[in-house]
Write a structure and sequence with these properties.
single chain, mainly beta, Methylamine Dehydrogenase, Chain H, Immunoglobulin-like, 3 domains, five-stranded mixed beta sheet, globular, binds (dicuprio-$l^{3}-sulfanyl)-sulfanyl-copper, binds dinuclear copper ion
Amino acid sequence: MKSAKTKASSVPLTLAILTVCGLAAAASAQSMRDVEAVAKERGLTNADLIAAAKTYLPSGKKDEYLMFASGGHAGQVFVVGIPSMRLLRSIAVFTPEPWQGWGYGVGDKIIAEGFPKGKSNLWGDTHHPALSETKGDYDGQFLFINDKINARVAVIDLRDWETKQIVKNPLTLSDHGGTFVTPDTEYVIEGGQYALPWGAAFAPIADYKEKYKGSVTLWKFDRARGRIDKEQSFAIELPLYWHDLADAGKGASDGFIFLNSLNSEKATGGIQDKQPPFEAGASRNPTDFLHIIDWRKAEALFKAGKTVQIEGFPVITLETAVAEGLLHITPEPRSPHGVDVTPKGEFVVVAGKLDPHVTVFSIEKIKRAIAAKNFSGKDDYGVPILDFDSVVEKRVELGLGPLHTQFGPDGYAYTSLYLDSAVARWTLGGSYGSGTPEPDWTVVQKTPVHYNVGHLAAAEGDTVSPDGKYLVSLNKWAVDRFVQTGPLLPQNLQLLDISSKGTNMPVIYDMAMGVGEPHYAQIIKADKINAWATYPEVGWDPHQQNINPSAPKPKGERVERGADGTVDIYMTAIRSHFNPEHVYLKQGEKVRWHITNTERAVDATHGFAVPVYNITASLEPGESVTIEFVADTAGTFPFYCTEFCSALHLEMMGYLMVEPK
Ligand code: RUQ
Ligand code: CUA
């Protein structure tokens, strides 16, 4: 599909662009001719010029929004400015990252805290970033992200944009349904995905129905400490389905968690034994189940001790969950994917990728059905099934392969259509839908994207107060959009302008992302984030997010040998030298190398790197780090600063001399 472009001849080019810039009156005839000449030479249409004017940021001008995107298999977070679509930062999370020194002496302990089954695991498959919320709105304080492959959750502090904590889920591996936060970030929700025996212990497929389990984990977030409190966290056992995406209720649906599932068939695959493969077996039934979980009830049960310890973690068993009435399910079209709660919380939009409709559930009807026990039966585990017709508000036909939905401020919903390669704009109904000029529950526009869109991210588009304006289509395929980069192609993130109502919803930028694969992203107003320009005080320990009283200080530089044979090196770094510059060690000595960057100037970052020893660190102004290693290799090692910090940056070096035994 080609995107519709305005005919080049319909409006004078210069008028088009200068109107956008609000400059028509002031523009000289000469500058109009200049723009025309450039457009002509480069073959740009009116629509291209308008798109360029909407996205171009002159040097020094800043983006209005920030998009925090999952880094997919890169195991990191990417931060992109909007509307410029410039990649501003990566944030190292699950994967070692040399520029930030993450995992090369700095952050090693945080990464290691999350190692699954005690094995060092140095990558992650990040899927769903979640910004912390206050009353259902992004507050700009923290970011959470999951690692699907190993079932881990990370906490990033948005003051210094550093990962502070990684927790490993002890119950399972693969956690696609995370992370999502409750409206005041009381909990970070981590849904499981593929069913597994508890703790991923060994169990043959023949034991599938008996030993394999589903679960959702509620990690308690301690905002004051900026950490997940493992002691206050718990899980709920779920039926043996594969659990997909989740969302937390808000407003009218506050207190609920909605969680999609697939493979309610409990298919076990086995293509090698001529059994139906998972892809067939797991989509045989016309419906799967939407799980509706009352998390406040679950929290009360946990606090009352009504849990069992599994893998050392408190779990509300499925039996308890059913007996206490905290878990209900309702049918949803087969193999669903996205589940998204509308801004006021009154509807839950489920997109079934094999169904051209989105199914909109009403929270009011769900509550009524639960109260009246309006069940159409129970599943194999005794979980009451809410009667589908009594909880559905509407089914809206959008197109092929609907996946994920975001919202605007005006009653519009936006759903990605994977198979159609399009973004659908449609109107909600009920009290929320009254803002649009079109009738309730109608498709207004489908804008083609290139190609096979997965998630969408609209500006604050999953909060209680979406901003509209911009929407990013996170496409899975790029095919012919960029210069051929070998058989492995970049990801294509496309920016759509959603600021006008009706059918006007053009693509205005293609951003190639040369690292795969961004899944979901969230877009926050940039001025909501109070990022530090430098660390608050010299000697700051980012892991404690506090001053470290024993951090090296100017005039306190020294090398100390403890009675236990440990060597403490107290070093400072300032343009353009380290102090000390000569460090002698004896082979086999245990080393704690403390370094403080004593700079107070913005962006005066120093690096610290030691060859052979696999050490690199980034020291932002004021930061103090401790790098621990054993001096197991004798030799002479020039260490140096890796950031081009001054005219004498090359001289910012020293020698580590390790004397052989
Ligand atoms: S997913 S493309 Cu991993 Cu969120 Cu739907
Ligand atoms: Cu410090 Cu280069």
